[in-house]
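Re: zinc ion structure - here you go.
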Amino acid sequence: MKEKREIVQRDAAVLREKAKAVPVEEITSPRIRKVIADMKAAMHAQKDGIAIAAPQIGESLRIFVVAGDLLEKADPSYKGGPEDLVFINPVIEKLSRDKKEMEEGCLSVRWLYGKVNRSTRASIKAYDENGKKISRGASGLLAQIFQHETDHLEGVIFTDKARELWEMSAEEIAELQRKG
Ligand code: ZN
């Protein structure tokens, strides 16, 4: 088995590619299962790792994963439970016209943060990791995540869209890494 994968940083070419769809019959294959397991491991290794897209571990595939446990903590309105959510070949079906500037960061853009105008509600259709079709609506943080992660699959990074960008201070980074 390969070691746990690194999260690639913003200059990596793979972050700028349009990621490839996963053939539906391959969703439960060992190769794709391994990619998903590696994504989860890379995400959970980061204290602030609330979501990750496959290109962020160097795989140009249309997959993203959301950490249910961190989502619950960060957004009390989320009632989905602590399990990780997996979205394969996701397509955003609806975005609310209502938008808000939301603060955003990215595991591949250490340690910049910015404000991005995002729809406050979004719905998505995708396949889950068992190859079942799913359809899900979201508001708040999960709606923001849907937009941030599907952008990754198009080769778009939040800094392309952010209106303001700032760098987290060394103290703030240390504080964040202490949090459990
Ligand atoms: Zn990101």
